[in-house]
Amino acid sequence: MSEISIDIAKFLGLVLTLVGLFWGMSRRQQTMFEKHLDEKFAILQLRLEQIEKKEGDNGKEVARVERQLMELRADLPEKYLRREDYIRGQTLIESKLDGLALKLENLQIREAKRD
What angle do CA 58, 60, 66 make, to 5 degrees? Predict the structure, then answer.
């Protein structure tokens, strides 16, 4: 059998080279991973800022709509009449007209009797 003989210095050199290569590759992989994470976090931060800006705009819009709704609620009694109120008013007017018609009819009957 043939023996492979390597002296200790070459063996240690080979082991150190492999360890250094492995360490270098792992550092590069870690650096790339951190870079990738930094990019993802930057994108997430940008999206979060956009969402916060839209949320602020939406808050302003909600406040504007609530203000308009309150103004509408305040204006409704002045500008619009409920159906029941209209019917009550019409009934009152019609009863007064009926009373006036009755008085006119009675007046006509009296005048007819005088003649």
Answer: 100
Rounded Cα distance between 38 and 44, Å, is: 10
Strand residue runs (E) in 2-42: none
CA distance 53 to 114: 89
* pTM > 0.85: yes or no: no
pLDDT tens sequence across 8-37:
888 899 999 999 999 999 999 999 999 999
Q: 80 in helix, strand or coil?
A: coil
| Maximum C-alpha span of the chain | 162
* 3-class state of residue 5 by DSSP: coil
